[in-house]
Amino acid sequence: MHSKTRAFKTQHFSKASAKQGIADIDLRHAVAELELGQGDNLGGNVWKKRLRNNLSRSIVLTKPADFWIFVHLFEKQDKANIAMDELSSFKKLAKDYERGGIDGIAVGLKNGSLKELCHDQKI
């Protein structure tokens, strides 16, 4: 399995995933599964994807066929799901990333707010 879609993580997500021991290769595998529809579509290009054998939950934004962005990580034991106001905020953020497109992603990479997951890794 090899995903060619570009994937990124925010600085906030990067710190949280490092604390949980979630490697970039695990996130690339999650992207491959998301591309197969294996995740919870919350609408508005916002997805919830389980990580670490269902112990962690991630919120992932997408611009279909272009990119995925891991933006939020939480533990199943801490909360079952995100609140409606959080979902609204994530949907707005997904629209912002969609509007900015790859040019907006380039700005995030340059200023350090985003990090690209290596898409050459075999999963």
Summarize the structure in words.
- The protein is built from three helices and six strands, in the order βααββββαβ.
- A hairpin with a 3-residue loop joins strand 4 and strand 5.
- The chain has a single domain, classed as YaeB-like fold (2-Layer Sandwich), CATH 3.30.2310.
- It has 123 residues and is of the alpha+beta class.
- The protein starts with 5 loop residues before the first strand and ends in a 6-residue tail after the last strand.
- A six-stranded mixed beta sheet has the order 2-3-4-5-1-6, sandwiched between helices.
- The mean pLDDT is 90.
- Helices cover 41% and strands 29% of the residues.
* Class of secondary structure makeup: alpha+beta
Point out poorly predicted stretches: none
CATH third-tier fold name: YaeB-like fold
Number of domains: 1
Using the alpha-carbon principal axes, give the shape: globular
- Describe the main β-sheet briefly: 6 strands, mixed
- The total of helices stands at 3
Strands ordered across the widest β-sheet: 2-3-4-5-1-6
The portion of residues forming beta strands comes to 25-35%
H and E order: EHHEEEEHE
Number of strands: 6
Radius of gyration: 13 Å
Instruction: Give the end-to-end Cα distance, rounded to a whole number of Å.
Output: 6 Å
CATH class: Alpha Beta
CATH architecture: 2-Layer Sandwich
Helical content (DSSP H or I, runs of 4+): 40-55%
